[in-house]
Amino acid sequence: xxxxxxxxxxxxxxxxxxxxxxxxxxxxxxxxxxxxxxxxxxxxxxxxxxxxxxxxxxxxxxxxxxxxxxxxxxxxxxxx
Length: 80
Hints:
Number of strands: 5
Number of domains: 1
Structural class: alpha+beta
């Protein structure tokens, strides 16, 4: 099982702060992102620009997910 965390606007758009996904281990970060953009089309714009961390380290889109990983989607932050 993979634990997925959504922060800020992504949590609002998806209506979830955290979800668990089965049968995702072995997928790449990019494949997970594509799956989630299909599942939550209302969050697609923010998700496409989000930084992604796996186990508290920023991840590359080609990184492979392992069982018990925690993946965090962190949307861009603006302010001034």
